[in-house]
């Protein structure tokens, strides 16, 4: 990963968590302390961050603009992730999609004896310290922006597994089903759905009624949706007709 790509990832992290330490940069991108410092110097020169002892934070003007919305979205995703963890039981086999909400779910897993398959480098990093969880990485073409593997090779790798549950993220979901703007991503998500006995979609309300070019699956392929707010009446009624369980995590 080059510096430009790292800087984008650092800004993405800050938009959610508002601060990032040098150690987190070093661990996240496998770079030296000097490289991490140079990245922060560059971001500060561009007015993107304010350097503080041990790391960086958002500058005051950007913090005021993004803080409340992003903080609320982060909290909502955390609620979705916590609810998702209630579906996980010891000794199960899981497939974890590349998604910020799915990654949060991985952070909150307390169960043991799990076997976890994922195409996400970040999820591998999150769970790599868990000696009680067996990890399997579905490789293929590496996407440096999303820090994951996609494409036919990844889909083929996933097709070799049969798992109890899939936790999958959404780019868009509407009456026609789950859609994605990226062909390779859609290809991998299809393979994930085929490999799982239960498909659990984790999505915030902003993804409802969004439609993209590549169809991932129809609504009948989804078993459970965990979200922060119910979708519009037409879509909600269709989900109920299909006996898809819709769980509103923000009600807890």
Can you describe what's shown?
This protein has 252 residues and is α/β, with parallel strands linked by helices. It folds into 2 domains: 3-58, Arc Repressor Mutant, subunit A (Orthogonal Bundle); 74-251, Rossmann fold, CATH 3.40.50.1360. Helices cover 42% and strands 25% of the residues. The strands form 4 sheets. The protein has a 7-stranded parallel beta sheet with strand order 6-5-4-9-12-14-15, sandwiched between helices. Strands 1-3-2 form a 3-stranded antiparallel beta sheet.
Helical run tally = 9
Order of helices and strands: HEHHEEHEHEHEEEHEEEHEEEHE
The number of distinct β-strands equals 15
Count of distinct structural domains: 2
- CATH architectural group of the largest domain: 3-Layer(aba) Sandwich
Distance between the termini: 40 Å
CATH classification class of the largest domain: Alpha Beta
What structural class is derived from the secondary structure elements?
alpha/beta
**CATH-defined fold name of the largest domain:** Rossmann fold
Question: Strand content of the residues, in percent?
Answer: 15-25%
Task: Provide the gyration radius in Å.
Answer: 19 Å
Domain HTH deoR-type: 3-58
InterPro entries: Carb_Metab_HTH_regulators (IPR050313), DeoR-like_C (IPR014036), DeoR_HTH (IPR001034), NagB/RpiA_transferase-like (IPR037171), Tscrpt_reg_HTH_DeoR_CS (IPR018356), WH-like_DNA-bd_sf (IPR036388), WH_DNA-bd_sf (IPR036390)
Protein name: DeoR/GlpR family transcriptional regulator of sugar metabolism
Pfam family, one: DeoRC
């Amino acid at each position: 990963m080059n510096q430009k790509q790292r800087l984008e990832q650092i800004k993405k992290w800050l938009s959610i968590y508002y601060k990032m330490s040098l150690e987190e940069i070093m661990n996240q991108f496998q770079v030296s302390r000097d490289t991490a410092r140079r990245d922060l110097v560059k971001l500060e020169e561009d007015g993107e961050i304010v350097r503080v002892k041990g790391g960086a934070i958002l500058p005051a003007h950007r913090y005021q603009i993004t803080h409340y919305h992003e903080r609320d979205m982060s909290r909502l995703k955390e609620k979705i992730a916590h609810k998702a963890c209630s579906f996980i039981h010891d000794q199960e086999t899981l497939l974890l999609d590349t998604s910020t909400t799915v990654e949060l779910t991985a952070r909150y897993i307390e169960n043991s004896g799990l076997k976890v398959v994922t195409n996400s480098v970040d999820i591998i990093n999150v769970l790599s310290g868990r000696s009680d969880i067996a990890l399997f990485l579905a490789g293929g073409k590496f996407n440096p922006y999303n820090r994951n593997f996609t494409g036919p090779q990844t889909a083929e790798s996933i097709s070799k597994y049969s798992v109890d549950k899939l936790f999958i993220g959404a780019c868009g979901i509407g009456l026609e089903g789950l859609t994605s703007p990226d062909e390779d991503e859609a290809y991998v998500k299809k393979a994930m759905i085929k490999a799982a006995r239960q498909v659990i979609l984790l999505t915030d309300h902003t993804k409802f009624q969004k439609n993209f070019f590549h169809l991932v699956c129809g609504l009948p392929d989804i078993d459970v949706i965990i979200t922060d707010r119910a979708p519009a009446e037409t879509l909600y009624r269709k989900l109920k007709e299909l006996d898809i369980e819709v769980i509103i995590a923000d009600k807890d």
